[in-house]
Amino acid sequence: MSEKYVSLRNLTLSYGKTVAVPNLNLDVVEGELIALLGPSGCGKTTTMRAIAGLLTPTSGTIVIDGRDVTRVAANKRGIGLVFQSYALFPHLSAFENVAFGLRLQKMPETEIRQRTEAGIATVGLAGFEKRKPAEMSGGQQQRLALARSLVMEPKVLLLDEPLSNLDARLRLEMRTELQRVQKKTGVTMVFVTHDQSEALALADRIVLMKDGKIEQLGTPHQLYAEPATAFAAEFMGFENIFRVQGENLVSDFGQLPLGFKATSPMLAWRPSGVQVGQGPLSGRVSASSFAGGHREYVIDTALGQIKADAPIETLEVPLGENIAFDLPKSNARQLSA
Ligand SMILES: Nc1ncnc2c1ncn2[C@@H]1O[C@H](COP(=O)(O)OP(=O)(O)O)[C@@H](O)[C@H]1O
Ligand SMILES: [Mg+2]
Question: Domain named ABC transporter: which ranges (predicted)?
Answer without folding.
Answer: 6-236
